[in-house]
């Protein structure tokens, strides 16, 4: 049999359709386990502890292996937190995508693995998950960054997010300032976005916004960068609303 049948609630794989229907008649959950930390309109995000909900996250990791060649974590889920994004309706919470991260990372990694199911791609959900990972880093008072090396698609996704987030901070400073040439430092951009300094500077170089002027490096906005920023801003209809995020930072070294 070339098909794998998976319960959309608990993600349990079964060998055939009959087994799946039997399982779904008695499946005990209609949403991911763990704490619901975000809800707005028909979108929810759940925080799931890899130690407390082993069966679910192991099923999640097996599902991920169907789409991610480099996915290796399966049994050892204890050190990880999983953030699962769902769309909900009268039937329950339908799995859309997720990202995982280490509970305690000495390198301040804020994302280990990310997946959006193919039927939900190009809806902005991947970018929302990346955005959430940086909001959580900010709540933890850290400058986060994803585990590397990147896949080609991963690099494009992060480069796009970094470019927009950095430009948003620069434009906000420009619009709020009365000066013709407002002042902002890379350190301030890092504090506002929780993006690591190396990623900020590499993105500024990629956007060709850094120039050498009178003995120092300055940020110079270009028409191309502005056009791309406003185009992305127009397309980004769905973003994390911080008013709907209920997250409490934890020190997992005590657990």
TrEMBL record:
* Family (UniProt): Belongs to the MYST (SAS/MOZ) family.
Q: Where in the cell is it found?
A: Nucleus
Q: Is Acyltransferase one of the keywords UniProt gives this record? A: yes
PROSITE patterns cross-referenced by the UniProt entry: MYST_HAT
Q: What is its EC number?
A: 2.3.1.48
Residues at the catalytic site = 147
Q: Does the keyword Metal-binding apply?
A: yes
By what name is this protein known? histone acetyltransferase
What enzyme class is recorded for this protein?
transferase
Q: Name one GO cellular component term.
A: NuA4 histone acetyltransferase complex
Question: Which residue intervals define the domain MYST-type HAT in the entry?
Answer: 1-249
Q: Which GO terms describe its biological process?
A: double-strand break repair via homologous recombination; regulation of DNA-templated transcription
Q: Which InterPro entries does the record associate with it?
A: Acyl_CoA_acyltransferase, HAT_MYST-type, MYST_HAT, WH-like_DNA-bd_sf
Q: Which UniProt keywords apply?
A: Acetylation, Acyltransferase, Metal-binding, Nucleus, Transcription, Transcription regulation, Transferase, Zinc, Zinc-finger
What's one GO MF term for it? histone H4K16 acetyltransferase activity
């Amino acid at each position: 049999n070339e098909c794998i049948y998976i319960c959309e609630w608990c993600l349990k794989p079964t060998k055939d359709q009959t087994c799946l229907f039997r399982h779904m008649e008695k499946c005990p959950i209609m949403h991911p386990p763990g704490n619901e930390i975000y809800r707005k309109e028909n979108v929810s995000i759940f925080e799931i502890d890899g130690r407390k909900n082993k069966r679910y996250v192991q099923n999640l990791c097996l599902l991920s292996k169907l789409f991610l060649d480099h996915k290796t974590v399966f049994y050892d889920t204890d050190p990880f937190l999983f953030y699962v994004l769902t769309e909900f309706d009268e039937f329950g919470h339908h799995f859309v995508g997720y990202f995982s991260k280490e509970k305690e990372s000495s390198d301040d990694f804020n994302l280990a693995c990310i997946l959006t199911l193919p039927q939900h791609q190009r809806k902005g959900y991947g970018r929302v998950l990346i955005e959430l990972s940086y909001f959580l880093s900010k709540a933890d008072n850290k400058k986060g960054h994803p585990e590397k090396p990147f896949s080609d698609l991963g690099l494009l996704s992060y480069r796009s997010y970094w470019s927009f987030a950095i430009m948003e901070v620069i434009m906000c400073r420009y619009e709020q300032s009365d000066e013709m040439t407002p002042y902002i430092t890379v350190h301030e951009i890092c504090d506002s976005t929780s993006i690591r300094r190396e990623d900020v500077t590499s993105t500024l170089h990629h956007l060709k916004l850094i120039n050498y002027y009178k003995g120092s490096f300055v940020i110079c906005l270009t028409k191309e960068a502005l056009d791309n920023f406003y185009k992305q801003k127009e397309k980004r209809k769905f973003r994390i609303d911080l008013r709907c995020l209920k997250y409490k930072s934890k020190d997992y070294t005590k657990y």
